[in-house]
Amino acid sequence: MHGPTGLYTTNPGLVTLIQGLVFPPGLILVVLSGSDLFTSNIFFFTAGLLEGRVKWHMALRSWTWSWFSNLIGSLTIVYFAHWAGILGEPGSTNSVIAFAKTLAVTKTHLPWHGAVVRGMMCNWLVCMAIWQGMAATDVIGKIFGIYLPVAYFIIGGFEHCVANQYLLYQGLVAGAPVSVDRTITHNLIPSTIGCMVGGICFVAFAS
């Protein structure tokens, strides 16, 4: 049997496809529960600004609070997963831990401009997923409207700053040779900028 890292080496396309198929329920839960997500708030509040329904200070406050709240939530799940031994016992070298470490290293060694562009493409799809979910009138319609765009951004290898808040620090806890500073400067900052540009320019302005 291949572990995640072995399969990633021998058949990376299959690993990416599997990730794309299992990731969308996260955004589906956010939409159906009415929770706040930084990347979708970019779309909502920009649309509100353009329509004159909200002020700049309201948008900036929402974006700041949702970004840091999403970070706190991500770090909490990382802690629970580590504490519960979901990835494996501390110090172990199973394939799940190895994959988490590989992912963190890969994401923090992207070119800065590459992380920005991947963030733009990502939130273009995420905001389209939100838009389609809002247009649907029943739960099944919302699920289908959200599912495919989110799967596409995973399969495309794009960068979602909120997802990375979890994935990067899961990798660090697993022992990835990456500093906290690098996760911020080489991924979270550029991917956040990209997500903002994608949500504002490609969806909110277009709508």
UniProtKB/TrEMBL annotation:
GO molecular function terms attached to this record: formate transmembrane transporter activity
Alphabetic keyword roster: Membrane, Transmembrane, Transmembrane helix
Source superkingdom: Eukaryota
Cellular-component GO terms for this entry: plasma membrane
Spans through the membrane: 62-84, 112-131, 143-168, 188-206
GO BP terms: formate transport
Keyword Secreted part of the UniProt annotation: no
Its membrane topology: Multi-pass membrane protein
Family matches, as PROSITE patterns: FORMATE_NITRITE_TP_1
Subcellular location(s) per record: Membrane
Pfam family, one: Form_Nir_trans
Family under the similarity heading: Belongs to the FNT transporter (TC 1.A.16) family.
PANTHER family recorded: FORMATE TRANSPORTER-RELATED (PTHR30520), FORMATE_NITRATE FAMILY TRANSPORTER (EUROFUNG) (PTHR30520:SF6)
Name of this protein: Formate nitrite transporter
Source lineage: Eukaryota, Viridiplantae, Streptophyta, Klebsormidiophyceae, Klebsormidiales
